[in-house]
């Protein structure tokens, strides 16, 4: 597309995209295969011989997938008949048109974002083609482990939340802002804990993140916390005497485990402080990028928090369950979140979702993959404006909370990117740096 930088791709040998496709994705597929194999007995117990057959078939489809990837075979159409199959197959044609007839759409030649998303969809296809085990979440073990290993940190956060909620009435506006800012940063740094960047390792939070916030502050490259605060406090509704709350904040979730808890804590604070009346969470329809939240993870996490053997943690869990029952919190999933599209395509390709997001006063996009989709996963100059990279996407005021794990970053000061590169060549992919980056279409 004229004037728009190219998509990141494994075509660039040695790039992060290249290394991901060459090394990390096959590792993830191998782990998936191992996981299915390890659960063979469980499948047998549940489904008898049919379960064993399904296990074998699924593994053989996944091995074939890994081989296609490693030998840069053309991307194939999907055949499982899930309602989104047609979208994926149309998208493949779209890519083929963009690339021209000379070469096939393939793992190392096509946009990284597309083929990486496609891999997760193909994992889903392998399961869907083997009905008895279609619902098996191949990433479940890692997600639950990340949750349990972060217990200490979760307890510390719930205790902090209790302290804030208890004194809410007495807080000055400045104190409220302080808590807001801290919990926003906790949710930001929660994004360090995803399972996909490490190909499934090191994903829990052992210590309380509250203690490290000031040490981490210099690693936040863009900090629009003030803009987010103003958006929330300015969303004053008419006809609500004395109310300063935003009607609705949407959170486009990223990872289960510790990160999800930090999101729920922040959402709890937004409601209990009166900064928002309602929270809409957006999750994934099927297991995605190893650790992303599905409906099952969302419910499971709330149930586990309720059942915890810790006073403030279980109190938080009970409160969250109540919010869900009352409809103050709502969980949604939409096929678009598990498709490969850049978000600038949302208005045309998922108009219902775009319209739904327009109803929010603020949309928070958690994590790296969402940032890649916001910016189209393209090779932008670091000084390009966030607005430019969004290419017209802006259903509502929005903010990305993201630790950097891919080669795309916009909205930096002139020279900032160069300086970072000289200090730490891996600054864009190490997960050490972060942004709180906002855009408000209404203030244009
Ligand atoms: O390849 C590493 C990676 O899978 C990126 O592709 C992706 O953007 C990221 O990890 C997932 O991170 P997050 O969970 O923050 O979206
Ligand atoms: Mg993720």
UniProtKB/TrEMBL annotation:
SUPFAM superfamilies, A to Z: AF1104-like
Entry keywords, A to Z: Hydrolase, Manganese, Metal-binding, Methyltransferase, Nickel, S-adenosyl-L-methionine, Transferase
A GO biological-process term: DNA damage response
One of the record's GO cellular component terms: nucleus
GO molecular function, one term: protein carboxyl O-methyltransferase activity
Boundaries of every Damage-control phosphatase ARMT1-like metal-binding domain copy: 20-420
Database matches in Gene3D superfamilies: 1.20.930.60, Uncharacterised protein PF01937, DUF89, domain 3 (3.40.50.10880)
Essential cofactor(s): Mn(2+); Ni(2+)
EC number, UniProt record: 2.1.1.-, 3.1.3.-
Record flagged with keyword Signal: no
Pfam families: ARMT1-like_dom
Catalytic activity: beta-D-fructose 6-phosphate = dihydroxyacetone + D-glyceraldehyde 3-phosphate; beta-D-fructose 1-phosphate + H2O = D-fructose + phosphate; L-glutamyl-[protein] + S-adenosyl-L-methionine = [protein]-L-glutamate 5-O-methyl ester + S-adenosyl-L-homocysteine
Superkingdom per UniProt: Eukaryota
Function, in words: Metal-dependent phosphatase that shows phosphatase activity against several substrates, including fructose-1-phosphate and fructose-6-phosphate. Its preference for fructose-1-phosphate, a strong glycating agent that causes DNA damage rather than a canonical yeast metabolite, suggests a damage-control function in hexose phosphate metabolism. Has also been shown to have O-methyltransferase activity that methylates glutamate residues of target proteins to form gamma-glutamyl methyl ester residues. Possibly methylates PCNA, suggesting it is involved in the DNA damage response.
Entry domain remark: Subfamily III proteins have a conserved RTxK motif about 40-50 residues from the C-terminus; the threonine may be replaced by serine or cysteine.
Assigned protein family: Belongs to the damage-control phosphatase family. Sugar phosphate phosphatase III subfamily.
The protein, known as: Sugar phosphate phosphatase
Organism expressing this protein natively: Stegastes partitus
Organism placement in taxonomy: Eukaryota, Metazoa, Chordata, Craniata, Vertebrata
The encoding gene: LOC103355016
């Amino acid at each position: 597309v004229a004037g728009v930088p190219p998509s990141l791709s494994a075509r660039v040998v040695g790039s992060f995209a290249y290394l991901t496709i060459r090394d990390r994705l096959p590792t993830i597929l191998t782990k998936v295969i191992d996981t299915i194999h390890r659960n063979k007995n469980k499948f047998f117990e549940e489904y008898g011989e049919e379960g064993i057959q399904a296990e074998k078939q699924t593994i053989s489809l996944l091995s074939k997938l890994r081989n296609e990837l490693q030998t840069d075979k053309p991307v194939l159409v999907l055949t499982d008949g899930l309602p989104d199959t047609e979208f994926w197959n149309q998208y493949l044609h779209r890519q083929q048109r963009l690339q021209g007839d000379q070469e096939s759409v393939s793992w190392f030649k096509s946009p990284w974002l597309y083929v990486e998303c496609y891999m997760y969809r193909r994992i889903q296809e392998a399961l869907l083609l083997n009905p008895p085990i279609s619902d098996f979440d191949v990433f479940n073990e890692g997600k639950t482990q990340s949750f349990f290993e972060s217990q200490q940190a979760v307890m510390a956060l719930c205790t902090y939340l209790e302290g804030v909620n208890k004194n809410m009435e007495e807080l000055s506006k400045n104190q409220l802002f302080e808590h807001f800012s801290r919990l926003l940063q906790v949710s930001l740094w929660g994004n360090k804990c995803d399972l996909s960047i490490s190909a499934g390792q090191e994903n829990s939070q052992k210590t309380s993140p509250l203690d490290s916030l000031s040490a981490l502050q210099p690693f936040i490259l863009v900090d629009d916390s003030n803009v987010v605060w103003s958006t929330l406090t300015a969303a004053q509704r008419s006809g609500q005497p004395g109310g300063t709350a935003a009607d609705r904040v949407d959170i486009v979730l990223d990872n289960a485990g510790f990160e999800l808890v930090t999101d729920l804590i922040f959402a709890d604070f937004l409601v209990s402080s009166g900064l928002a009346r309602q929270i809409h969470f957006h999750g994934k329809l099927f297991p995605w990028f190893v650790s992303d939240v599905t409906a099952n993870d969302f419910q499971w996490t709330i149930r586990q928090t309720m059942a915890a053997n810790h006073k403030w943690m279980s109190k938080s869990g009970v409160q969250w369950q109540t919010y869900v029952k009352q409809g103050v919190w709502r969980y949604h999933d939409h096929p678009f979140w598990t498709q490969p599209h850049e978000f600038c395509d949302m208005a045309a390709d998922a108009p219902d979702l775009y319209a739904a997001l327009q109803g929010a006063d603020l949309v928070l996009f958690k994590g790296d993959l969402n940032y890649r989709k916001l910016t189209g996963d393209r090779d932008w100059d670091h000084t390009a404006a966030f607005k430019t990279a969004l290419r017209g996407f802006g259903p509502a005021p929005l903010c990305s909370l993201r630790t950097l794990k891919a080669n795309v970053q916009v909205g930096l000061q002139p020279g900032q990117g160069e300086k970072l590169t000289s200090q730490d060549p891996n600054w864009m992919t190490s997960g050490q740096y972060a942004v709180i980056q906002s855009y408000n279409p209404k203030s244009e």
